Amino acid sequence: MYSSAIKAQKQVFANDELTITQLEDKMWVIETVDNTTMYIIEGDEKAMLIDTGTDCHNLQEVVKKITDKPLYVVITHIHVDHAGNIFDFEDIYFHQADEVLIDRLREPYKGRIHYVKDGDVFDLGNKEIEVKHMPGHTPGSIVLLDYQTGNCYSGDAFGSGQVWCQLWPFSSMHTYEKSCRTMHKLMNNGITKVYCGHYPHIKRAFDKSYIEDMSQLAAMIRKGTQPEPKPHPFIIPVIGAAKPMMSTYKTATIVYDPEHVKKGLKGEVSPGN
Question: Could you give the CA distance from residue 199 to residue 65 in angstroms, rounded to a whole number?
Fold first, then answer.
């Protein structure tokens, strides 16, 4: 089951492109009209913007309507719907394994890139945010952990009901299963809520049962014992598998490339690097 909806949500800003809603104390979600998602977390000294959505006008100025504190801009993975507006910012942070994807954005990024790795911690002042590497959706997918609130900000690492593992550069299902198991352990040790990368589709945080379902489904696909797979209706040009399949188990759906279930591309990155 999903976790119960967050109480006392308050919309604090809206324009033609996006809305900003306060979900918890010093935590906001930005939802764009095309269903991309960003989160703002504020500490006593600094703030963090998680992802930059698609092409929103003056995103930097929009964020300042919520906080004027020095800002870390951290990208969960380099796909255009999560990194499309990095050009507004002079410094960004992401995992180096996703560097292969940055040239596929609409224009070259000319700012400063800082690479993060598993276990890195951002100190916002009386609030620490930890990086965990969770490859599968992309080789450099990360989640961001706030143990103070029990929150995980997962990007697309575990999907928003459906995770896409059928995209280049492909990872094996063994790699993705390891990421799921790592997330499950985290949810036994202080993390209780997973805020996904496309919040408008869900309007709530996932709980541990969702991660359990995703982990079990990944294991079944790896073993070839998954519920009957069906063709996925969407073919993603250039980076998508030619014949993607999907399977569903309880609350979780995984889209995958049958050609890369057992083995990802050469140089595949394992979780925790």
Answer: 21
